[in-house]
Amino acid sequence: MASRSAFNGPRRKLVLAFDVGTTYSGISYSVLDPGQVPEIKGVTRFPAHEHISGASKIPTIIYYDRSGNVKAVGAEAMREGIYEQAEDEQWVKAEWFKLHLRSRVGPGAGREVSNDIPPLPLNKTVVEVFADFLAYLFECASSYIQDTHANGVDLWASVKGQIDFVLSHPNGWEGTQQAEMRKAAVLASLIPDTTAGHGRLSFVTEGEASLHFAIQNGLPTGAMKKGDGVVIVDAGGGTVDVSSYSRNTSASKETFEEVAAPQCHFHGSVFVSIHARLFLGNYLAESPFADDIEHIVRCFDKTTKLRFRNAEEPQYVKFGSTRDNDPSYNIRFGQLKLLGTDVALFFEPSIDCINKAVLDQRRTAHKPISHVVLVGGFAASDYMFNKVHAALAPAGLNILRPENHVNKAVSDGAISFYLDHFVRTRISKITYGNFCHIPYNPNAQDHRDRAAKTFISVSGHKRISDSFDVILPKNTQISETKEFRKSYFRESDSRNDFKSASFSVWCYRGLVAEPKWKDVDTKNYTKLCSIDIDLSYLPLTPRTKPSGNGTFFRLDYDIVLMFGLTELKAQIAWKEGNIEKRSATKIVYDPDAANDVA
C-alpha cells in the first residue's frame, strides 16, 4: 500500500466522492484534519438498508409521482411492497438514467444502446434526475457521518458549506458530460453556481479512480516495484472502462503515467440482462408466462446471473410458486430451466469486448503490459473472470481481482485521486484541433482540388478555408503541466468585430493518420466546445492594406490548451509589445455539441 502524508491545510476539510453507477451507487469520504494522515472511509448504512450490515452500495433507482415529486430512492425503492405501491399510485421509475448522459460520438459512444435504455420520466431532464439522486446521496452522507462519528453533529457543522466533491464518470465521457454533471451538482445544492463553487467539484474517470483503488488494495508487485504496465478493467453495470498505466520508477514521489488511450464500452452487466430479456422474449412469446418476462428477468438478475459459473450445467430461474408449471417450456414448480450454453451467450459480447480491449491496450501502449486488474461490480462474476482469465493468461498476462470489495473501487479510488494524485501523465484518446484558413499554394494538388474554397483576405492575400490544424494528436502522452499552443490571427475592416470572440475546439475521431481537410471523413469531425473571450480591452492598431487603399485591423493570438488534467483548461495569449498577456476564458460545452458534425 502506498503511504500518505499528513494533511497540512489550515483547517478541517471534508471530501465526498459520489460514484453514481448505472445500477448501483456508492459514497466514500475522508475527513481531513490538520496534522493527521487522512483515511478513506465508506458510507455503509443507508435508509431501508439497515438489515444489511456494511452494505456499501444502493440501487441507482428513483420513483417519482405523476407530478414529478421524488417518492422513493435507492434501497427504499426496492423495499417490500414498493412495487405494488408504485403500481397503485402510478409512480414512474427512473433507472439506468446515467446512460442518458452518454456521449453520442466516437468509439463506444453507445448510439446503438438507445433502444435498450429505459426512458426518462415525462417532463424530467437527465440533469434533473441526476440532481435528485445526488441530493439523496448527500443526505445519506450527512446522516451517516453525523450518526457514526464522535461529535458527528459538530463535525458536520464545521465543514458544511465548504465540502469538496469528486464525481467519477466513464472513460468515454468528455467536457460535455462533465458540464452536465456540474449543472446537476449545482441543482442539487452541493455547490453554488460560482467560480469558487465550481472549484470545489473535481472529476475523475472511472478507470483512473480504479487505478488509485488498486494501488491501495493490491496492485501487483511487479507493477509497483518494477514499473510493469497494468491494464485496469472497471467492469460496471453500464460500461466497461479500460485504462493502462505504469509506475514512473525514475520519479522521487510515487507517480503513475497513462500509457495507452483509455477506452469505454457499453458492455457492462446490464447488457447481460438485456440479452437475457431478448432470449426470454422469444422463448416465452407463445407461453402462458409471456406477460411475466420482466419479472423473470428481475429474478434472473438477482440470482442466476450472479451464481452462473459453468456453461455445461443447466441454470434455473426461480420466479413463481409451485403451482407454476409448463413442461413444454421447461417450467416446473415456479422454476425456469435454461441451458448453461444459452446463459453463456448472454455474457459472450461483454467477455469478448474485455478481451479485445485488453489486447488492444497492450498493442498500442507506450510501455509493455504484463498485468490485468479487474474491478467493478461485474468483476465479481466468477464466470466472467474465469473466461477472461482463460483467454488472456495464454497471452502472457497476469489476471487478478483485488480481494477488498471490488464494487467499491470507484468511490474509494475517487477519494484517493483527490488525496494522493498518483497519475501525472495521461494519453490523448482523440485528435484535437481547429478549423482555419491557410495560404493558398497553387503548386499543391490538394489545394488545387479545393480551389472553390479560396478567397482574398481582408489584407489582400489568397487563402483557402476548412483546413484542420492539429493541436494535439491522438495517443500522445501528456503531462499535467504541458501546454499545447497554436498561433492564429483574425482580420477585419472594423474594430467593432473584435469586441468579443468565440474560438471552437474540434475533435477528429476517425482513422485518417494525419487529418487535414474538413471534407475528408467529414462525419468523424465533432465540435468539442467553444472558448469565449472578451477582446474589448485589447489594444489594436490600424494597419494599411497592401494595396494602399484603406486600413484594417488584425489580432494575433495563441490558443493555449492544457489536456493533462481530468478537465480541459484553456487560455488565450497575446503580445503587448514584448510582454505576453493571458486571459481567462469561458469554455462552453453545448449539450448538443457531441452530436455536431462538421
From TrEMBL:
Tree of life domain: Eukaryota
Instruction: Indicate what this protein is called per its UniProt record.
Output: Uncharacterized protein
Instruction: Please name the source species.
Output: Pholiota conissans
Q: Which PANTHER family would you find in this protein's record?
A: ALPHA KINASE/ELONGATION FACTOR 2 KINASE, HEAT SHOCK 70 KDA PROTEIN 12A
